[in-house]
Amino acid sequence: MRLDRDSVGQGYFEHAVYNHWDPYEDIPQSDLEADREKMINDEDLTEEEFEEYMLVLALFGAGEEAVAEDLAPLAIALDDIDDQMFITSQLYEEAKHTQFFDRYWREVVLPVADERGFEATYPTNQRFFNEEYIDLFEKNEAAMELLLTDDTPENRAKAYCHYHLVVESVLAQTGYYGLTSLFSPGGNDNVPQRDFPHLEGLTQGVTYIRSDEGRHVGFGMQKIQELIAGEGVDPQVVQDTLQELMPHVANTVSRFTEATDPVPLVEYSRDKLTRRIEIITNADAEIPDVETLVEIDDAPDTATADD
């Protein structure tokens, strides 16, 4: 048989198949309508807070769209059928995430702006994207495209670092952490500047997306560990790549100041980076299994270098 059901790629692929969700059918229309009404009726909502609300959703939407495009070179470079199958599922999931944020913008953000008399704009407005954010995704694109012309173990490790670890594991997880802290009862009380309504449609979509991205992060971590242990990639390359990209994350996250206290978000992102480095560069550190990796609290952090 060509497929190895015990392989990393096949395990994550099968988990993706069994845990499929639909960005239209599985997010009830009634939940989006409730989110819309809660935002319209939030008497304390300022236009500055709403601008920040749009900002984070625009960054997510653009990020999901970008990686859905930028990940394709990795699918071409991989020569293992099990890994190829997982990457195809990941591309599909990134496209679904793009659908969710587009739907949310159309059905919640724009109607709220219209009703409240706030400036109605689209998530592609360039004011949402600062230089650090743009540079991060341009570097991610370059790292992936390099695999088409110079596919070495070191360049593969760098590509996984750019996308699976920094974009998905650090930047995206920090953003989801912020959103759930603001708009769900189970978040960190130190993040919001005030109490905001519980937006069940938004947080339900985020829950599904974080579950997908637990697989993506786990796959990238496993692959980098394999490149270090089996292909001789210097762990310092991984550390240097991650640390080089961290300022882009910090400078993106620190933009949230109206509705959010940026300090715990920056601290959260730095902790994520530190834990990833500790786990990946220690050959004895065990990465959790698939089920653990897709827990909503981003459970890769439960593994330590001493495990």
Would you tell me the overall average pLDDT? 88
Q: Indicate the structural class.
A: mainly alpha
Uncertain runs are 294-307
Shape: globular
The count of strands amounts to 0
Q: What is the rounded Rg?
A: 19 Å
The N- to C-terminal Cα distance equals 34 Å
Strand content: under 5%
- What is the helix/strand order? HHHHHHHHHHH
Percent of residues in helices? 55-70%
H/I helix tally:
11
Reported for the largest beta sheet, the result is: none
Summary tags:
307 residues, mainly alpha, disordered C terminus, 11 helices
Protein architecture, described:
With 307 residues, the chain is mainly alpha-helical. It has eleven helices and no strands. Helix 2 packs across helix 5, helix 3 packs antiparallel against helix 5 and helix 6 packs antiparallel against helix 7. The longest helix has 36 residues. It is globular and about 60 Å long. The relative contact order is 0.13. The C terminus is likely disordered.
Give the helices and strands, then pairings.
Elements (H helix, E strand, L loop, with lengths): L7 H11 L10 H13 L5 H24 L1 H6 L3 H36 L14 H16 L6 H31 L16 H32 L3 H19 L8 H19 L9 H4 L14
Helix pairs in contact: 1-5, 1-8, 2-5, 3-5, 3-6, 3-7, 5-8, 6-7, 6-9, 7-8, 7-9, 7-10, 9-10
Please provide a brief summary of the model.
It contains 11 helices and no strands. With 307 residues, the chain is mainly alpha-helical. Helix 3 packs parallel to helix 6 (131-146) and helix 7 (153-183) runs parallel beside helix 9.
